Amino acid sequence: MFAKVDEKENELEEKRKNMVENLISGGYLSNKNVINAMLKVERHKFVPKEYENFAYDDRPLHIGHSQTISAPSIVGIMTEALDVKTTDKILEIGTGSAYQTAILAELAKKGKIISIERIEVLANIARERLKNYKNVEIIVGDGTQGYEKEKFYDKIIVTACAKKIPEKLIEQLKNGGKMVIPVGGETFFQELLLIEKKNNKIHKKFLTGCSFVPLIGKY
Known about the structure:
Elements: H1 2-25, H2 32-40, E1 61-64, E2 67-69, H3 72-82, E3 89-93, H4 99-107, E4 112-117, H5 120-129, E5 136-140, E6 153-158, H6 167-172, E7 173-184, E8 190-198, E9 201-210
Parallel strand pairs: 3-4, 3-6, 4-5, 6-7
Antiparallel strand pairs: 1-2, 7-8, 8-9
Helix pairs in contact: 2-4
């Protein structure tokens, strides 16, 4: 029995290594710290059991409640664009599977990750999955409103598509901070943007086209 378990774990580890190698060769990953984080975090533990064998394919997967776990390539693009530092305080909007949260927690080991999830069931599952991370706090709430209690944030990452950039998130971003957010309406007309706040002015940079579930809340 243990031999079969070990064999399965070895197989999944090999798939994870291949996934990261493919992301590097595909131009999605180049930052050494992000590469190491994606090698370490076991994506198969963040998806439903029936999707375990597909965990290292570069595609989104359903996690229930009409939500998905983002494709690894998108996770790589968003994480590298954030340029996470060890001591960063990061606000994540949309915990979902908590895979992205775990990647951030690996990178900001001396910082803090505050992740907001509107669906309580997913928030509870995320807390269990991330129980070994002492730098993560999961909050149930409306992500469009951010989290005033802990402002200002070095980085903000939004993992659902906003109709427009929520003003509350701009307000809570530290001057000199960065935010990565998908913006758009229909599924096939979304843009992943890097927002930088410099001298209290907002600068936008297009990163790539994307497809996310909608960000629900008060705008």
